[in-house]
């Protein structure tokens, strides 16, 4: 093809006989062992809002969780005060969230659906129970009610006595804010 181009140039009056075909030099081949391996260098990009935004989110989440736990703890550990009601199936805990710590001797007050109010120790053993009733009328207050005069009513029935184990915890100050007007009968062992 180069000869044909040279003939065309000569026909137009240009002498291309001194020109040489220039070939590019062959590529340099380096043995594989001499070629350095590519090195990847991690690039650190500083971000003002990415990392600190995550930290703020975690902090806000922890504050919300602490508030929820505090509300939950105060609700389940609050003693029954005059004017309050513990609904059937409801319960309160002496230690609440702190029951995971061995320093707190826990107890549970449970209002059963059958009209029986029971206090259990940390091992689930019955400490005492009060027998009430189950509401049969619409104007009856279900569960345990501590009235303003410190009398206890369960399912609308006035509870006059409580059956307590000989070595049981006293029934006040916890689970009641003030001592209820009730006769205590100690069980025989």
**C-alpha termini separation:** 122 Å
User: Helical stretch count?
Assistant: 2
State the helicity in percent bands.
10-25%
Number of strands: 10
Determine the mean pLDDT.
80
The low-pLDDT segments are none
The oligomeric state is single chain
Q: Which H/E pattern describes the elements?
A: HHEEEEEEEEEE
> Beta-sheet strand percentage?
15-25%
Strand order of the largest sheet: 2-3-4-5-9-10
Structural class: alpha+beta
Biggest beta-sheet profile: 6 strands, mixed
Radius of gyration: 44 Å
CA-based shape? rod-shaped
Describe the fold and architecture.
With 189 residues, the chain is of the alpha+beta class. The protein has a domain at 85-186. It contains 2 helices and 10 strands; from the N terminus they run H-H-E-E-E-E-E-E-E-E-E-E. The strands form 2 sheets. A 6-stranded mixed beta sheet has the order 2-3-4-5-9-10. Strands 1-6-7-8 form a 4-stranded antiparallel beta sheet, with no helix packed on it. The protein is rod-shaped and about 135 Å long. It starts with a helix and ends with a strand. The mean pLDDT is 80.
Question: Secondary structure elements and their pairing?
Answer:
Layout: H1 2-11, H2 48-77, E1 85-86, E2 91-93, E3 107-111, E4 116-121, E5 126-131, E6 144-146, E7 152-154, E8 157-158, E9 161-164, E10 183-186
Parallel strand pairs: 9-10
Antiparallel strand pairs: 1-6, 2-3, 3-4, 4-5, 5-9, 6-7, 7-8
Features:
189 residues, alpha+beta, 4-stranded antiparallel β-sheet, 2 helices, 20% strand
């Amino acid at each position: 093809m180069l000869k044909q181009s040279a003939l065309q140039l000569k026909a137009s009056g240009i002498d291309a006989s001194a020109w040489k075909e220039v070939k590019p030099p062959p590529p340099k081949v380096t043995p594989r062992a001499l070629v350095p391996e590519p090195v990847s260098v991690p690039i650190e990009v500083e971000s003002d809002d990415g990392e600190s935004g995550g930290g703020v989110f975690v902090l806000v989440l922890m504050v919300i969780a602490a508030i929820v736990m505090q509300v939950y703890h105060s609700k389940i550990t609050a003693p029954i005060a005059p004017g309050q009601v513990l609904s059937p199936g409801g319960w309160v805990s002496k230690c609440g969230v702190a029951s995971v710590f061995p320093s707190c001797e826990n107890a549970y007050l449970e209002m059963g659906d059958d009209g029986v109010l029971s206090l259990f120790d940390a091992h689930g053993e019955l400490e005492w129970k009060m027998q009430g009733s189950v509401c049969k009328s619409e104007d009856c207050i279900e569960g345990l009610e501590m009235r303003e005069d410190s009398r206890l009513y369960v399912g609308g029935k006035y509870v006059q006595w409580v059956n307590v184990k000989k070595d049981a915890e006293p029934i006040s100050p916890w689970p009641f804010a003030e001592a209820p007007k009730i006769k205590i009968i100690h069980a025989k062992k």
